[in-house]
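Note to self: keep these together.
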Amino acid sequence: MSSRALKKLYGRNTIEIPGILGSGNKSHVAETECGEDSDEELQTLQSDQVQSHRLDKINRFDLLKADDNADLSNSESNDESLNDIESSPKTNTSTAQVKCKSKKKKKKKNKENLNMRQKDQQNDDIDLTIQEVQEMLGESTISCQSAFRGAPGVTMEMRALLTVEHRYLSAENEMKRRFGSKVVQGEKSKKRNRRFLRPSWLVRPKDTWPQLVRPGLSMQLLETKHGVQYFKYEHNKDYQQAQFDFLDAVESHDPNNIVQVLHMEPYHIDTLIQLSEVFKISEDMQMAAEMLERALFCCESAFHPLFSLTQGNCRLDYRRPENRSFYLALFKHTLYVGQRACYRTALEFCKLILSLEPDGDPTGVLLMIDYYALKSEQYEFLIRMYREWEAHRNLSQLPNFAFSVPLALYHQRSLEGKSTEEADLLLQEALLHFPALLRPLLDKCNIKPDKDVLSHEFFGPAADASHPEMLRQLIALYIGRCHGVWKEPAVITWMENNVQTVMRRVDRNDPLAQQLREKRECRYRGTPRNVLRHILMSEIQNATAALPRDVANTSFMSFDPLPPVDNIATYRRPPRKPRAEENYGPLSMFFRSLMPNYTAEDVANANREADEAAGAAGGLQAQPELRQGFSGVINALRELMFQVELVAPPVENAGGDEEAVVDDDDDDNEWDDN
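Structure:
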């Protein structure tokens, strides 16, 4: 019971607390503050006897009910107390009690007004703070619906295609689902990942990795347009210096220098990607995959608080070198996951890469997402993607979608027990559009085609000649990657029936065949740079052999293959200063010219840097002429070395060398006569 109810019950402002001070001290009371004057406090003590007759008239259980009513305002309670005081006998003590309570009422009102003003001011400050944060970082409460509303090229129906599910990003979890947790023995102990405070969705950190402490990598929100957020990675000064050291180590063509950079910066992204390629060449696939996992772990630790992997509304511009490292690490990691037969995990990573820049697709994920969808039996996803993206992406012009979508539809209809007529029509259209794909696909699957197919002109060598160079590259890429999904006996029978139908349609001069041939000849002019980049990173032998010579002969770095032409460089590498060891003498330049990686440009660059250094130091004017003379001598020595022919050592024969030679000539003549 509150103090206000107790005062009303006892009829006075002083509350007697019995049983505390003993039975003999009933006159001692606990006084309450009624005002500032001590005289008024003494007057209220005299009113105890006057108010004692009101005790019998008050129902004490009603006071319990009144105490529970929290909705009553303070003004109402004060009015009721004043009415009770007015109904009491008019004595001097009652007037003193009224004064006391009126003062309390004023104090309460002033205190309430002050509290209300403070609360309003606090709410205003909170609103202003939230508004400032939203202006600095953008809208932080973006729902899934508003994320895709009004975005160019993205609709609400595409949301499921761009979103990623966290539970399917772990290759280990997929292997446990397929083979069981007992078969897949975890190599981690119960204290796994105790050193890493930050959890990771992309990879599973290992205890053997170094501690991640301020790698110098961060992410910044650039802008928000139509519910889509645009981010970029940033390098601080220490990370930039590590990047310069890494470039110097790569140019030295010595893997030990790259390892030295990694010892200094254990989480340098480009160094990890390059070392992954070195381990791959040495056939250490486990270490190659681990290097990529460390790179992804570092990239994820630098995510912006608003950057989301699941919503599909976060973008990274591939033209920025800082962002390209994340793209390449994701792409290479997807290939390694696919090689472990974790196709559903690889599909989720493809969706993640595609969501970062769906319009440009800088790594060509659309050229392999169909393969992982078929292998993971996600037929509905592939069919839906084809139907929704065909209007603005023309997926039917890609051979992989033209053939994989009918196959997915055939599997889906077969599982449902329905007719495969729609799949038949799509496969026939694909064969009419890309006739040069049939025979190489059958050869890759070790299937001998029918005599009618071999003799038919539509599927003969002339069909391959009519395909542009870019189309032949796409066909070789699809056959090298997806030939395994066509080896099932039921699929081979289904394809054979549709091939027979296509040949009959061509013999009847179907107008669709002529229309598709005209489109095929007009399109596919020049291979886009993202397609070439995808072929180089995929390392499929059939597709790599079909690359143009200017691309195949061009040396590129694994950490940045075929960078975009419109590169956006945030910072530039400072010019290298000529070192003392680069001032080669004639003999050292001669031995250096015998190395396989020697080019004439190296000599020119060395001469130019040495000339600049000599000019800055006040060198002799005749030094360039002397170096040109040395270069001429070196070239002459190289030509002499190439013209030298090694003579076979003489054969020791007791019967004489001449007779042995004559016998050999006779034997050769006799083999020729036969």
